[in-house]
């Protein structure tokens, strides 16, 4: 084991699916001596302790963070600023911080506000992995295995600090990609945030109808596949949508324009236009799945 891949003490804020899986992966790799967890409720922390996700429940933020090698912020993005404000005065000179937020421009902005001249110790990250279930009980050591983890390093980061964070995510099994924070948010507005918004919208619409029981009783695999992500954590996705609303609104406008084109084709009975759109979509989808199968 090298210094770049061995962590004596890791502090995790948020011990649910994302933070818990990070801790379990480092433990499974045998690369962390101790994991200390912080969370909003004693119940979730107690569960994380019982499941072996954390070794201790933290109570004194200053004491734990100041002596940590690595801190992971794995809370809903709307709470990231709160955590940063609490840990910023406590950072040890060698403490490295990363996060797991699904948006990056807003996270970088609050990091600049709270970390000040310690900003170089923070390397933003976004693991592209998850599940519709949340909480400590959903955490698993292989969640990040062969999954992309996007780093959005800052100009203030030294190569050593970036390498430290890269090593942590690679130990979890992640495949590292690097993007600019703004580019990250534009990309994920299109391929992640918009699909979640659409899935939530469809289920919400059907659930409000008078004949909802009949509708859901006939729903089959197509509905199940399209709406799987509507079972995701509401608070987390509320925060993601609001944090990335500029890029998400742009993607939503593009999608509405596509729906308007399809509606116009339906209204005029233009089967050729519908088929052309469907064929183009099918080809793109198959090319994507073929590429995924090769990796």
Structure explained in plain terms:
This protein has 295 residues and is α/β, with parallel strands linked by helices. Helices cover 53% and strands 13% of the residues. The chain is built from twelve helices and nine strands. The strands form two sheets. Strands 3-2-1-4-5-6 form a six-stranded parallel sheet, sandwiched between helices. Helix 5 links the parallel strand 5 and strand 6. The radius of gyration is 21 Å and the shape is globular. The N terminus is likely disordered.
Question: How are the SSEs ordered, and which strands pair?
Answer:
Blueprint: E1 7-13, H1 17-28, E2 32-38, H2 42-50, E3 56-57, H3 61-66, E4 70-73, H4 80-87, E5 96-99, H5 105-115, E6 122-123, E7 125-127, E8 148-151, H6 159-171, E9 175-178, H7 181-207, H8 212-218, H9 221-227, H10 234-243, H11 245-267, H12 271-294
Parallel strand pairs: 1-2, 1-4, 2-3, 4-5, 5-6, 8-9
Antiparallel strand pairs: 7-8
Helix pairs in contact: 4-5, 7-11
CATH H-tier superfamily of the largest domain: NAD(P)-binding Rossmann-like Domain
In what range is the share of β-strand residues?
Answer: 5-15%
Helix and strand content put the structural class at: alpha/beta
> What's the shape?
globular
CATH topology of the largest domain: Rossmann fold
- Give the CATH level 1 class of the largest domain: Alpha Beta
Assigned CATH architecture of the largest domain: 3-Layer(aba) Sandwich
Q: How many structural domains in the coordinates?
A: 2
Number of helices: 12
The H/E string reads EHEHEHEHEHEEEHEHHHHHH
Chain-averaged pLDDT: 93
Rg result: 21 Å
């Amino acid at each position: 084991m090298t210094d770049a891949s061995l962590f004596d003490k890791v502090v995790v804020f948020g011990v649910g699916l994302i933070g818990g899986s990070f801790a379990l992966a480092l433990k499974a790799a045998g690369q962390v001596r101790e994991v200390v967890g912080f969370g909003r409720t004693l119940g979730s922390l107690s569960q994380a302790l019982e499941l072996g996700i954390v070794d201790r429940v933290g109570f004194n933020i200053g004491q734990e963070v100041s002596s940590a090698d690595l801190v992971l912020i794995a809370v809903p993005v709307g709470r990231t600023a709160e955590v940063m404000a609490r840990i910023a005065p406590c950072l040890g000179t060698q403490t490295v911080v990363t996060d797991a937020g699904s948006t990056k421009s807003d996270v970088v902005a609050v990091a600049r506000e709270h970390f000040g001249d310690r900003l170089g110790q923070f390397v933003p990250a976004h693991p592209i992995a998850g599940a519709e279930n949340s909480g400590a009980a959903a955490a698993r050591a292989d969640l990040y295995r062969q999954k992309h983890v996007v780093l959005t390093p800052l100009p203030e980061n030294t190569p050593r600090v970036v390498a430290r964070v890269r090593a942590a995510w690679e130990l979890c099994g992640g495949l590292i990609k690097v993007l600019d924070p703004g580019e990250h948010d534009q990309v994920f507005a299109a391929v992640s945030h918009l699909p979640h918004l659409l899935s939530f919208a469809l289920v919400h619409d059907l659930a409000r109808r008078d004949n909802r029981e009949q509708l859901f009783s006939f729903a089959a695999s197509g509905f199940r596949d399209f709406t799987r992500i509507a079972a995701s954590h509401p608070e987390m996705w509320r925060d993601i949508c609001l944090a990335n609303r500029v890029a998400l609104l742009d993607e939503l406008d593009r999608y509405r324009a596509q729906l308007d084109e399809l509606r116009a084709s339906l209204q005029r009975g233009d089967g050729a236009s519908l088929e052309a759109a469907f064929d183009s979509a099918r080809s793109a989808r198959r090319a994507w799945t073929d590429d995924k199968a090769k990796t």
